[in-house]
Amino acid sequence: MAALILCHFLLAACAGPLVGRLGPRAFVVLALPPAAAAVWAAAQWGRAASGGSVGWSLPWLPDYGVWLALRLDALSLLMVLLAAGVGALVLLYCVRYFAAGTLMLGRFAGNLLAFAGAMLGLVLADDLVLLYVFWELTTVFSYLLIGHGSERKQSRRSALQALTVTAFGGLAMLVGFLMLGGAAGTYRISALVADPPAPSTTVSVAVVLILLGALSKSAIWPFSLWLPNAMAAPTPVSAYLHAAAMVKAGVYLIARLAPAFADAPPWRPLLLTLGALTMLLGGWRALRLNDLKLVLAYGTVSQLGFLTVLAGAGHRDTALAAAAMILAHALFKAPLFLVTGIVDHATGTRDLRRLSGVGRALPRVAAVAVVAGASMAGLPPLLGFAAKEAAFTALEHGSAAERWTLAVCVVGSALTTAYTLRFLWGAFARKPGLADTPAHPVDAAFLGPPAVLAAGCVVLGPGVVWLNGLLGAYADAFPPPAHPYSLSLWHGLGVALMLSGAAWAGGLALFAARGPVVRLSRRVAWPTADRVFGLGLLGLERLALQVTGFFQRGSLPVYLATVLLVLLAGQLTVLLVDRPWHGAEPPRLWDSPVQGAIALLTCLAALLCLQVRRRMKAVVMAGLTGYGTALLFVVQGAPDLALTQFCVETVSLLVFVLVLRRMPVYFQETISRWRLMVRVPLALAAAAAVSVVLWVMAAARRADPAGRALVYETAHHGVKDVVATILVEYRAWDTLGESAVLAVAAVGVTSLIYFHRRTGSPDDSAYETASAPPRTNGPRANGPQPAGPRANGPQTNGPQAGRTAWSFGSGTVTPVPAPDDNAPERTWLAAGRTLAPEYRSVVFEVVARLVFHPILVLSVYLLFCAENLPGGGFVGGLVAGVAMMARYLAGGRYELGEAAPGQPGLFIGLGLFLSTGVALLGLFDGTALHAFSYEGHWPLFGDFHLGTPVLFDAGVYLLVLGVVLDIVRALGARVDRQIEREAAAREAAGREAGR
Predict the structure, then answer these.
(1) CA pair distance 320, 391, nearest whole angstrom
(2) Which among 792, 807, 811, 839 has a CA at the least distance from the CA of 990?
(3) pLDDT in tens, 346-394
């Protein structure tokens, strides 16, 4: 089971290259995983029909009772056959539906196959948390599929609406799952159904939240608005997601939990009421629409209401009818959507007001549609008739509420007959006064998938008795009635048949009076749910803008004061209410006088920040506070923390240097006395509160420290550095998560810096320069090139290639005379020829070049020595980043490009890939991040110890180095380009003035 699901995702990842090579024919290959899943499920028919099941499980979070558990029983087998079987046919349909060269077809194919895999995992999941994961995967992939035509506003809006509604329901459902699992003591669905928790308020609330997610997924009122708008998706998506798969997920969840929770107080009233109301509203709306897909969409909403009534009634016979109707609905609604796509493909329109005589032009297509439509209307001898008869009989023998619901369902069935006739008449009939619509022929391969599904309606009508074993195995989970119902095409003349006849007659009457019905429907129509959703979303956006504008005023002091006020209020409230200092050991001023001296100097540096007027001085003083903290770590005996703090402060200081180049030298803000009177007490109070909280937290410890056990475990594994071992072994999950957060934050920051490039700013496109200086021929290619207009001769508009912010002089610099000999000149920097003489520092260049490689060697040493000495991947990456920053400060962005020619994103991606790969490697031993080690002896080096934690740390090293490079290139290169533009503008203005 797990392999089948995994195959869907693996092949989906290869969909792009496959489609690029094979074109639409790649859908044949992509149909193999769902076809294999359908064949496998069919092979398990006998076991499931006899009440057996097939299971697979793997521990995921065993301490919390969460498992990767899959289970195939009668209900899930039915859903697998639908999701996989219909999915395979839809993928084959795509071979003819899409033309060669269709834009983004590979992405569409991958998303469609990945959705099939997610749907397969959803119906097989036997754990609530795992089910939720697949549930949200179907939401994400449906969003991508509905919004496939992203160049159209309607597609984007419909995708966002579907995502918003279903994700909201999914979050509510997750809370319900957690509450239900907590109340039952297990998240296993089979265990919950077999032994449900005792009725309680918690269980009732959990059931309501779960139903909220199920109803939103299955487009039950008031969540039905997203499904009709999702018709903006291509027709294969509508046929699969909105007929056989996604919209059935909510009904499946209701059917799955009904044996255990149908008697919970809110279950039946909620589902019977909303299901019956949805059936009426959807069917009534379908009578006045002219788009064939919209007619089917609102018909789907109506049918989903009917399915919700049957699955939620919570009796053995209604459950049997629900399972039969789920199968029948997929077999008649999917071919109708596919036929609609064929009609649109052949005629160029889906508007029934413009279609005429298509049935004569496409008789085979019309025949398939008539068969599927007859099954939808419940006509004998088709499967839809047998399923509807079972539903009417089951509701007739139910409670009073179910008999009232039956009356509503009969009216809904009349509406179903009416909109079925409207669809068939609108798509294929010849209309008076309207010329026949031209239609090109349709080949058998295009018509084959809907024909196979429609044939299922014909075969399983008389053969519905074959389904009693499988569907009865699911229905038998409910208490048996005195006279159990069995599926059959003919049960004789009875109330159910009379009600079906009344529904057919009512549908014929509504269709015959379609003109007045349409006018009445439009006259009494309420504001559409889509309009209400749009107005609500607009109001929410305006409210968000108002709230954001009130709090986000662009003032960093205001932001910081707000954070400190909230922090101070929360801390003071807890301290005053709990009074946790009682019995706490009084704090010590210091452990040694050295600590006191360092703390005093650190505080002095912080106070000096308040007096300086220069920005650079303030940055240096703030950096001194960080270095003082690092010294405290050294005195306390924490060299790892001290080394990390030193590196972080150094990198931060250099980043500030990059930014401050474009800012005024002095602080320009004047702080009034009353602002000082507010800010100083607030800062002091926040600092005091934080200090008290830290003291209370340290003094309130009751358990034994874990340090002794960690030291023992570290020594037991043959290593000495406890801190590094904690980071890459004991708490490696935290390190991996923090690394991912660091990468995302860096990418986000640099994306914001370069946002103007995506908005089409003309400046950067005009002044974009190469990432490396141009090469020149001749013996003096390596010599220094004089800068300025005198040296470069006539200038063109914009900076010259290879000229950086460092190479623009004042225009009055005397060129360096050429040497007499022809010997090549050497420079200390690889890109030194891009530097203007007045901006060069020979000492800095020499030092930068001399220390660059030793610093890199030191960074690698810190990476590999972390098991026994202070160091690690994080510190090593920062040290390597400092080396790169030194090269940049000495020679500009071209020098940085020579030192690190690779893109920062490459280092970030490789780091994440390596760390994640090491984490997954542990699965071969049963647990993610399991550490493997190897010990050996090399003749020259002696004994050595190599472990996967070192590889994990190497990934952290690459990631941190990539983040530093990304920040330097974003901030440094961005500022360089601004300086270049301004210098070029000054030079151009000087030349114009000289003329």
Answers:
(1) 8
(2) 811
(3) 888 888 888 888 888 889 999 999 999 999 998 989 999 999 999 999 8
Instruction: Let me know: does 621 contact 603? Beta carbons within 8 Å.
Output: no
Pick the closest to residue 973 from 780, 705, 750, 812 (CA basis). 750
Answer yes or no: is pLDDT of 779 > 50: no
CA 885 distance to own-chain centroid: 34
- pLDDT, tens digit, 9 for 90 and up, residues 161-219: 888 889 999 999 999 999 998 888 888 998 898 888 888 888 989 999 999 999 999 88
The per-residue DSSP string of 1-43 comes to: -HHHHHHHHHHHHTHHHHHHHHGGGHHHHHTHHHHHHHHHHHH
Nearest to 567 by CA among 678, 689, 426, 697: 689
Give the CA distances from residue 343 to residues 362, 374, 864, in Å, rounded to whole numbers and listed in that order: 9, 18, 66
Instruction: Kindly report which listed range (41-55, 464-478, 513-527) carries the lowest average pLDDT score.
Output: 513-527
Return the residue matching tokens 């889509």: 530
Q: Which two tokens stand for residue 483?
A: 């006279």
Task: Tell me the one-letter amino acid at 597.
Answer: A
CA pair distance 227, 281, nearest whole angstrom: 14
CA 454 to chain centre: 36
How far is 987 from 950, CA to CA, in rounded Å? 53
In this prediction, residue 775 carries a pLDDT of 41
**CB 677 within 8 Å of CB 665:** no
Radius of gyration of the chain (CA): 36
- CA-CA distances (angstroms) from residue 466 to 45, 712, 856? 11, 66, 73
Residue in the structure block whose two tokens are 């043959």? 718
- Hey, CA dihedral for 327, 40, 105, 108, is it positive or negative? positive
Residue 303 and residue 165: Cα distance in Å, rounded?
Answer: 20
In this structure, how many other beta carbons lie within 10 angstroms of the beta carbon of residue 744?
Answer: 12
Tens digit of each residue's pLDDT (9 = 90 or more) over 570-604: 888 887 787 777 777 778 788 888 888 998 999 89
Q: Strand pairing of 942-947 and 933-938?
A: antiparallel
Geometric angle at alpha carbon 590, from 589 and 593, rounded to 5°: 120
Burial code of 77-97, b = ≥16 C-beta within 10 A, e = fewer? bbbbbbbbbbbbbbbbbbbbb
From CA 220, how far away is CA 211, in angstroms rounded? 10
pLDDT at 33: 92
Stated pTM of the model: 0.70
How does DSSP assign 838-894, residue by residue? GG--HHHHHHHHHHHHHHHHHHHHHHHTTTTSS--HHHHHHHHHHHHHHHHHHHHHH
Token pair of 7, please?
């195959």
Q: How confident is the model at residue 772 (pLDDT cuts 50, 70, 90)?
A: very low
Would you state the structure tokens that stand for residue 536, as one six-digit string?
Answer: 């609500």
Q: Are 234 and 279 in contact (CB under 8 A)?
A: no
**pLDDT tier, 525 (very low <50, low <70, confident <90, very high otherwise):** low
Alpha-carbon distance of 1 to 56, in angstroms, equals 7
**Average pLDDT taken over every residue of the chain:** 82
- 3-state SS, 548-584, equals HHHHCCCCHHHHHHHHHHHHHHHHHHHHHHHCCCCCC
**Long-range CB contacts for residues 694-697, cutoff 8 Å, separation at least 24:** 695/581, 695/584, 695/587, 696/575, 696/580, 696/581, 696/584
| Residue 671 dihedral angles phi and psi, to the nearest 5° | -95, 120
| Short-list 92, 135, 113, CA closest to 6 | 113
Write out the DSSP string of 896-936. Answer: HHHH--S-HHHHHHHHHHHHHHHHHHGGGGTSTT---EEEE
Give tens-digit pLDDT for 293-330: 889 989 999 999 999 999 988 888 899 999 999 999 99
- Find all residues with CB under 8 Å of 112, minimum gap 6, and list them: 30, 90, 91, 94, 141, 145, 236, 237, 240
